[in-house]
Amino acid sequence: MPAIATQALSRRFGEFTAVDSLDVSVEEGEIYGFLGPNGAGKSTTVRMLVTLLKPTSGDATVAGSSVTDHPGDVRLRIGAALQSTALDPNQTGRELLALQARLYGLGRGRARRRIDELVELVDIGDAVDARISTYSGGMRRRIDLAAALVHSPEILFLDEPTTGLDPLSRARVWEEVRRLNAEAGVTVFLTTQYLEEADRLADRVAIIDRGRIAAEGTPVELKRTVGTDVILVRTPAADDALVRRLQEIPGVDRVDRHGHDLTIAAQDGSRAVGPVAVALHQAGVDVEELVLRTASLDDVFLEVTGTRFASDDEEQES
Amino acid sequence: MTAVATRRATARPAGFATDLMSIAGRALRGALREPEAVLPALVIPIFFFAVNVGALENIGPAVGIEDYRAFQLPVAIIFAVTGVNRAQALQQDIVGGYFDRLLIAPVKRSALLLGLLVADFVLVIVLSIPVLVLGAVVGVEYATGAAGLIVFLLIAGLWGIAFNGFSYAIALRTASAGAVGASFILFFPFAFLTTTFVPEDALTGWLATVAVYNPVTYVLAALRSLISEGWDAAALAGGLVAILIVAVVSFTLSTLALRGRISRG
């Protein structure tokens, strides 16, 4: 039985459809990446899966129970770290974890042992006894993650767990997620707007755009749909005639045009880039940028949605 | 970073009593760490007691009051207990996402509200103590003795939490710091359009009419009866029924607001 399965899961807010007939299946022990830009429907999906928001139609089964019919059963078996770190700045880290432990029915001794384990896991050290208001952004994320894990959930939902973190803190969160998955077998449902995060962390990735799944597969499978290598050309002269000309070059698999950007997919980019440059020169076009690189999920996103990610994601990739 | 616990099915619903005490305990801890939130409840009643007694003590006999200090002490206690709550903290929980964390936990939904009211009850009882000490210092005695003093405190505490239902309804409905802050305005008609300064017989015009419908009139009558008259079943029943009516209205509003917030997500 899959850990998470949605059946035509939908959520509307008035006339706006945030999530549109979503069918997703996540296997036990998998890290599943839900990739999309702001407003794509990622957080709305997670809020339905963690029982915070009722679907307008459709249903989802999480850890074997329906989120609409048996939300209480679902809550016992999931943990969640949502987009805004859900913390009380007036409590200490230990008080936060102890309260979580009590609400999940852990006895005092068991709660104490579990909190000690989590303090070590998220590497919060003595700061666990300081007020959360004194924590840095990275520490807040880590104590939030610890709070989501107090009751040893089978499925962990992480809604943009590294948004706003510096690269070092981001790498630490990734390491903890991998460890939880590998050593404790926790299934992870991860939303992200960072391509690199989905690429490096997820076993499978779904690209969500305007409430619908635009593509799904392993990062490798998805990138293969674009090509092994990509040559990016930016030119104001990009038009259909130029696209046709470039497509005739041996070794070029496909050429897509989005405004001034041409995306040229090739199995061996290093062989194709020379003829491409020559063809551009012969066509007499003014080339602003010409880049050869391996395909990324960004290329997949462009391929399936027709737009690139926002600039803050490009920063993340740099 | 070496420890990862093996997966165990450890979670179970903690039960209503544990949920209630956990939520109340956290709310009390939060109140102790925000003394600025409870300071007005200590200062305002003592300030008004001093001003009212200082300015109006001499008119007491003219309106049929023998001991104006005893007449003012219940007013001070109402000022001490009205509007002392964790609504601002609840609003911050909602905006900051902590309320979502509680909703994802297997916690009884009613405990989220009732736990706050339990904490408020403890808080207003504690905040009433300085006012009672003030009463003792200025020579106010209870015709009903020590038992009357305890009933006095309980009635004040019950009024405090009945009123708080409105503040929680506003916090849950709006999640707006401004709206929650403004909810204090509700305090004024309750506290002043009543027998705050003179007895009911001495009120005239529209104020006399409004006071008849103001539940605080009956709460003050019940509190004053414990000080001045001895055990007066009718006055006590009047006060408790008034509190009950306010509680039914305010708790219904706050429960509906909680349900609305849960269903809206």
Automatic annotation (TrEMBL), chain A:
Membrane topology, as annotated: Peripheral membrane protein
GO biological process: daunorubicin transport; doxorubicin transport
Pfam families: ABC_tran (PF00005), DrrA1-3_C (PF13732)
Domain ABC transporter intervals: 4-235
GO cellular component, one term: plasma membrane
Main localisation: membrane
PANTHER family cross-referenced by the UniProt entry: ABC TRANSPORTER, LINEARMYCIN RESISTANCE ATP-BINDING PROTEIN LNRL
The name this protein goes by in its record: ATP-binding cassette domain-containing protein
TrEMBL record, chain B:
UniProt superkingdom: Bacteria
Any one biological process term the GO annotation gives: response to antibiotic
Keywords: Antibiotic resistance, Cell membrane, Membrane, Transmembrane, Transmembrane helix, Transport
GO CC terms, sorted: ATP-binding cassette (ABC) transporter complex
Residue ranges crossing the lipid bilayer per the database entry: 37-56, 111-136, 142-163, 175-197, 203-223, 235-258
Pfam families in UniProt: ABC2_membrane
Domain ABC transmembrane type-2: 36-261
Cited InterPro entries: ABC2_TM, ABC2_TM_bact-type, ABC_2_transport, Nod_factor_ABC_transporter
Coiled coil ranges: none
Membrane topology recorded in Swiss-Prot or TrEMBL: Multi-pass membrane protein
Main subcellular localisation: membrane
Transmembrane helix found in the keyword field: yes
Entry's localization field: Cell membrane; Membrane
GO molecular function: ABC-type transporter activity
Family under the similarity heading: Belongs to the ABC-2 integral membrane protein family.
Name assigned to this protein: Transport permease protein
